[in-house]
Amino acid sequence: MPQQYETLLLERRDRVAIVTINRPDKRNALNIKVVITGAGDKAFIAGADIAEFAGRTAMMQRDVMTARSLFTAIDTFPKPIIAMINGYCLGGGCELALACDLRIASEAASFGQPEINLGIIPGGGGTQRLTRLVGEGKAMEMILTGDIIDAKTAFAIGLVNHVVPADLLEAKTMEIANRIVTRSPIALGLAKEAVKLASRSNLDEGLRREVDLFALCFSTEDKDEGVSAFLEKRKPEFKGK
Ligand code: COA
């Protein structure tokens, strides 16, 4: 049974945790309480709760964005995080998906940064992470027009890793998650850190830090286990040590 919070469901399936944003009547709009799939079959997350914008001053909004830092928490979390996108993935919802490590979408999903329609711009990393993922031209078009694109287009521009029929979304996501969790958790964390460095550092610094992170793997029991298992032609059993 999923553990239930006011706007969040947390379910553990063996070594994979599923976090469901649970405000289907508001298309899973992100209010402050929410911290990665959306409940219901319509929306992943329809964006920030626009009702909370009304009457907010610049300083209030700034405090909300910096105190919450949900996107940074996801981004820097030492375990892989997959966004399972079942419907509308708009505004802050798209930004949340962008902060995740992989994005798996249903054919029914749609994507957009429609903030421009409200007279504002993306503020949860949309101008930065989307641009790094799909390139300046595509990001600029999405952000300046506020247009919503379908899942196939999102796949074509590299915004999502896979698009599958709605009824196969969970199975595909769990298949990938279950393959990832058989790997060394330490190596996964270091790999995530190293890959994310690519868009945040120059090539020389990135390559230098990659070598450091690579060398760090040699301090782990998991590296000994991985190498031994290969040489002994058996499956490794990683312990996260
Ligand atoms: N913030 C607050 N409430 C939202 C919301 C959001 N981002 N997105 C949807 N809702 C609410 C609607 O106000 C409506 O509430 P109500 O039933 O109390 O009137 C409810 O969710 C259902 O929305 P509705 O528009 O009727 O559903 P739909 O399926 O026809 O359309 C969307 C879904 C997502 C396309 C549409 O709601 C929409 O465009 N939302 C805003 C998206 C956006 O601009 N996000 C960026 C915010 S920065």
What does this structure look like?
With 241 residues, the chain is an alpha/beta fold. 44% of the residues lie in helices and 16% in strands. The protein contains eleven helices and eleven strands. The protein has helices at residues 50-53, 58-68, 70-76, 92-99, 126-134, 136-145, 151-156, 169-180, 185-197, 203-217, 221-231; strands at 3-4, 8-13, 16-21, 37-38, 43-45, 82-85, 88-90, 102-106, 110-112, 149-150, 162-164. The strands form three sheets. It has a four-stranded mixed sheet. Helix 5 (126-134) packs across helix 6 (136-145) and helix 9 packs antiparallel against helix 10. The mean pLDDT is 91. Bound molecules: coenzyme A (COA). The site of coenzyme A (COA) has 17 residues, from helix 1 and strand 7. Coenzyme A binds at residues 26-27, 29, 42, 46-51, 88, 90-92, 114-115, 118.
Largest sheet composition: 4 strands, mixed
Ions, cofactors and other bound molecules: coenzyme A
Total E-strand runs: 11
**What does the overall shape look like?**
globular
Distance between the termini: 30 Å
Helix content: 40-55%
**Structural class per helix/strand content?**
alpha/beta
SSE arrangement, N to C? EEEEEHHHEEHEEHHEHEHHHH
Percentage of β-strand residues = 15-25%
Low-confidence stretches: none
Q: Give Rg in angstroms.
A: 19 Å
Number of helices: 11
Strand order of the largest sheet: 1-2-3-4
Mean pLDDT: 91
